[in-house]
Amino acid sequence: MQHNNSERLHEEALKVIVGGVNSPSRSYKAVGGGAPVAMERGQGAYFFDVDGNQYIDYLAAYGPIITGHAHPHITKAITKAAETGVLYGTPTPHEVTFAKMLQEAIPSMEKVRFMNSGTEAVMTTIRVARAYTGRNKVIKFAGCYHGHSDPVLVAAGSGPSTLGTPDSAGVPAVIAADVITVPFNDPDAFKDAIEKWGAEIAAVLVEPIVGNFGIVEPIKGFLELINEYTHNAGALVIYDEVITAFRFTYGGAQDLLGVQPDLTALGKIIGGGLPIGAYGGKKEIMDKVAPVGPAYQAGTHAGNPASVLSGIACLEVLKQKGVYEHLDRLGALLEKGIAETAATHNMPITINRLKGALTVYFTNEKVMNYEQAENTDGELFGKFFKLMVEQGIMLAPSKYEAWFITIAHTEENIEATIHAVQNAFEALAKEL
Ligand code: PMP
Fold first, then answer.
1. Based on the structure, what is the number of domains in the chain?
2. Are 122 and 149 in a shared domain?
3. 185 shares a domain with 225
């Protein structure tokens, strides 16, 4: 497979775009380097690069493209928005329709607000929780990514629950010091953090099903325990459902799992591929937001007709019968195929899957938290990644990113993917 044009483009990009990419996760740094494959066109389960190569897409743009590329219903909605003016700076009927759709699908979101990214959504839920409780500290879980606002770019020190230090240059230490990080799926560490800092905690922020160190489900009772201890401490529970909402069911992970937070942040899928974020929650908490309350949050493009109409169209597609059954069925097929070929070639892998999203970790160990995901074999994954790309299968260039199946994927796509995995494992097995 030739990548001459991708390589040339990367050289040009490096001159004008920092690192040659507009998001660090797109760089191939973590998989041994090289020019990232640049795409030109997407259609259904496929996209096509600038050298004319075709790929089955499991990246799905890091999640949003659950309908596949250029879905006709969404394309029609975006075209309508383009033809009728993309931004007014006034209320629109579309945003009311969309807010009602979200509220109906995720009932804990009694009131919502739209914005432009998941980062903004999470950042604002933290502000609202602080405004509501009059406290500053936040508990988050190691390895959960919540966008790039200051309070969530924080890493833990050593120990089961520790006050944070900045995880990025430019994040003030005083902001990080208000953030406590504990391991996911560790009830004792969480209880310990609440015991130590409970009276100062504004919110506990969690991905109810983790999507950022692979797909990791909470152990039984973990989310219930978070709710109980957080509420007893007088703090709020925030679910970051930027990845999870509408991924596993028509609604949030909270609806799938039957546990409700006080505030929820959304993004990705709800824009149908256009930029969007939203947050919402209990009415009395949301009433802290301007112009009703004292917590400020605003946006020139917030609720713009293009993103909202695209989002409505996306949810209409997802609401159709059989969508999540299709994702689950193909997910199960892919998992089975990869597991079988791994057994044949003695490849040390562990697969975490929930419905149409799965992660293939290069380890024999279970992966239930960030430390375990970090301890998987990145070098082996890097080689696997390149072998898959060369066979026209596009994954995220990260050892613990999820593979996302879309409704455009077919059984034939899954079979072709399993075949490519067989070839890759066969090649890798010779090196082990
Ligand atoms: N929260 C989660 C769980 C995410 O996965 C992401 C993005 N990967 C974000 C927040 C940030 O969203 P955005 O990139 O739209 O700002």
1. 2
2. yes
3. yes
Residues 238, 93, 313: CA angle, nearest 5 degrees: 70
Same domain, 110 and 215: yes
Q: What angle, rounded to 10 degrees, do the helices at 323-344 and 411-431 form?
A: 20
Catalytic residue among 62, 145, 239, 361: 145
DSSP E strand boundaries for 230-285: 236-240, 263-267, 277-281
Q: Which helix (H) or strand (E) holds 350?
A: strand 350-354
122 lines ligand 1 (CB under 6 A): yes
pLDDT at 165: 82
What's the burial of 283, exposed, middle or buried (CB within 10 Å: 0-12/13-18/19+)?
Answer: exposed
Structure tokens at 409: 């994927």
Q: What is the pLDDT of residues 295-305, one digit of tens each?
A: 999 999 999 99
Could you tell me if 285 and 401 lie in one domain?
no
Ligand 1 contacts CB of residue 153 (under 6 A): no
Same domain, 306 and 181: yes
Separation of alpha carbons 158 and 229, rounded Å: 23
Q: Which ipTM value was assigned to this complex?
A: 0.99
What integer pLDDT is reported at residue 83 of this predicted model?
98
**240 carries an active-site annotation:** yes
Residue 313 shares a structural domain with residue 329:
no
Q: Check: CB of residue 219 under 8 Å from CB of residue 185.
A: yes
Q: Where are the alpha helices (DSSP H) in 106-204?
A: 118-133, 173-176, 187-197
Report the 10 Å Cβ neighbour count for 289: 21
CATH number at residue 262: 3.40.640.10
**Of 137, 268, 355, 383, catalytic:** 268
Tokens 């989310």 -> residue:
223
85-136 pLDDT per residue, tens? 999 999 999 999 999 999 999 999 999 999 999 999 999 999 999 999 999 9
Atom from ligand 1 closest to the CA of residue 212? 5
Side-by-side strand order, sheet with 357-361 = 350-354, 357-361, 403-404
- Mean per-residue pLDDT, 310-339: 98
- The stretch 186-195 carries a mean pLDDT of 97
The single-letter DSSP state of residue 199 is: G
Are 256 and 129 found together in one domain?
yes
Helix (H) or strand (E) holding 404: strand 403-404
Distance 241 CA to ligand 1 centre (A): 9
271 and 332 in one domain? Answer: no
Q: At what angle do helices 187-197 and 222-232 cross, to 10 degrees?
A: 10
pTM strictly above 0.90:
yes
